[in-house]
Amino acid sequence: MAHNIFIDGAAGTTGLEIRQRLAERDDLALIELADHERKDSAARARALNDADLVVLCLPDDAARQAVALIENPAVRVIDASTAHRTAPGWTYGFAELEADQREKIAASKRVSNPGCWATAFIALVRPLVRAGVIPPDFPLSTSGVSGYSGGGKSMIAEFENTQAPNYTQTVLRNYALTLSHKHMPEMQVHTGLAHPPVFAPCVGRFYRGMLVEVPLALWAMPGKPVTLDIHKVLAEAYRGATLVEVANFGLLPDRPSLEKLVAQMSDVQPLVGFAGLDTAPSALDAEALKGTNAMKLFVFGNDKYGQVRLVALLDNLGKGAGGAAVQNLNLMLGLPETTGLL
Q1: I need a surface site. Which of 36, 81, 97, 302 has the fewest CB within 10 A?
Q2: Any catalytic annotation for residue 116?
């Protein structure tokens, strides 16, 4: 028997992404409203209460209102908005967060879907805080670049609609200059940090995909870890994970002259190779995992200077949004975790 699913806000960027991922599945039946019913409270309330599972793809206030409309205690909810990501009673929907997080999601009636930037930051930082390598009060920053779909309809119009008042031909720009971005609370809470990180995001002229970086000054950290120590913690944290992979640690095997130079200068330390490739990358492409639900983590380090760059590569609409929602839906309904995921 198919599970009844209602996507409230299916016309938005994330809602459309999730709908496309679920539409062809025969184990699910989508409850859909006609265009004139989408803002009809009575029609929405019926759909919300008739579903086995509801996915909310709404602004924060509308998501809270939708939850208030649910009277059927059997209805389970995944909220893709920011509204409940640190709220009591809600389970954070990052299945790889802790060893028992999948079980928590599977047992929960209320799951908050993580933000795309937060997914990457937490994936890189949480295991290191948990292992005691990064102290909770250590100052951190994070930066990177995302495809413009991450900003929703207004940002899509900025980059695509030549008639939009905010249309721009900019190739790359920064944002969140008030240092109060909506992802920051979940970044702090779900890593266990005492302070929010300095968050310095950019958006590029490409639709989907993202790179997120966290620089570490190893010389300032207790215990003075080296690059390999950082990699070992991350590799162990995601050992056996299906959708999160830590790239292999190793030297550049096809460039012995560079290795000799390294030995002579002690200036560049071993890099992390991209899993599946024969050599370590000299650069990463933010679009490399677009259209997938994977996230790959990298550790690049220079032990002479005591510096590391942690890097996460993912699709902001995949593991950073719609893909994560489908993963959570599968867990909550007792289905194989990666059903319907690429």
Answers
A1: 36
A2: yes
